[in-house]
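The step that takes the researchers longest sounds almost clerical: writing a folded protein down as plain text. Below is the pair of lines this work produces for a single protein:

——
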Amino acid sequence: MADPNPLQSTRSPLRPLPGLIFASRWLQLPLYLGLIAAQAVYVFHFWVELVHLLEAAFGSQAALQQLITSIGYKQTAPITSLNETVIMLVVLALIDVVMISNLLIMVIVGGYETFVSRMNLEGHPDQPEWLSHVNASVLKVKLATAIIGISSIHLLKTFINADNYTDRVLIAQTAIHITFLLSAMAIAYTDKLMAGPATAKGH
């Protein structure tokens, strides 16, 4: 039977120095494991905030004060029960944690697949759709898009709680968000320009 991959069978082993350099990619493994640990911290934080929200909904003053402190919400009159603004800020904080967790997943899975080793997930029912065509350029665009989403949530939280921020902070956060947006557009446009000639050549 003919070898299905003759190039692989005739490929000579790497020389020691190139082999060492290529193997150095495994030094990134502890970094991705560290990000997994960071994600576990985010999961714990999410459940702590969710439990406080549920307890406050059932009248717990201690849980309510914990939520008010965590979201930085301040009013001249003391808050004795959940109101719409507090609930909205807490829910936005939970969404923020979820979006950052999604960003971590993209970095961990996409980065490992791109820069360390193949996961061989082809055909797996839970394979992420974006992972089948991920590369360094696609990963950069997706990360930039995710950062814009996270920045949007932070900006919305700030505007809802605008009374507790100075005009300088509001303007700075808006400018930072616009900078993220322009940076993502520049990255996407640059990748489009770089991929254009290759795509045209392929056709």
About this structure: The CA atoms of residues 75 and 164 lie 8 Å apart. The mean pLDDT is 81.
